Amino acid sequence: MTARLQLQGLKCVRVDGLPGMFTRRRLIFAGMFIIILGIVSLAMVGSHVGRAAPSTITVPDDYPTIQQAINAASPGDTIFVRNGTYHENVLVNKTVNLIGENNQTTIIDAGGVGTVIRVSASGLTPGSADNVTIANFTLANSGTGVTDSSLTLDGVEGCNVTGVRDVNDPTYG
To answer: What pTM was computed for the model?
Structure first.
């Protein structure tokens, strides 16, 4: 025996032996569930579109200077710096992991001018340089000005600095 329902021009047929009947309420609920599931799926897919997985940039293999590597990095990337002395002032202006190979032999030398490493979101979107990690470096030869230092964290939060040596001696190097 077959039971038939008429729902706004749609014929729904229930064959004996199948559980339940199609009711208007069940059809509306199923339709809404499918729509919501689709919206959630699109939102999840859309939140990952255009975002590459974090990558590792190696200095000097990929870029000759630490600053060039930072400039090329995307938020979340790791910049791995091989042993050596790098004569530069470094500005970290995005959320990256800056990791030296060894804190005894991976040296950033500012040459007596300015701050060796400055982590700053100044002039950028607030939070854009939060949660930076800096590890395993020797910082040398910052300038002698009032605002010069080996490491400055300027308006940022959640930064992690470990294994960093300060040998701020003008005769070093």
So the answer is: 0.68
User: Is the same domain home to 103 and 74?
Assistant: yes
State the sign of the Cα–Cα–Cα–Cα dihedral 36, 37, 38, 44: positive
Q: Is 166 helix (H, G, I), strand (E, B) or coil?
A: strand
Assess whether 100 and 22 both reside in one domain.
no
How far is CA 45 from its chain centroid? 18
| Amino acid, single-letter form, for residue 101 | E
pLDDT one-digit tens code per residue, 60-93: 999 999 999 999 999 999 999 999 999 999 999 9
- CA distances 157 to 87, 111, 121, 171, Å, are 27, 28, 10, 33
Q: Looking at the 3D structure of the chain, how many domains does it have? A: 2
Range of the domain at 126: 56-167
Same-domain pairing of 66 and 116: yes
Residue whose C-alpha is closest to residue 52's, from 69, 68, 72: 72
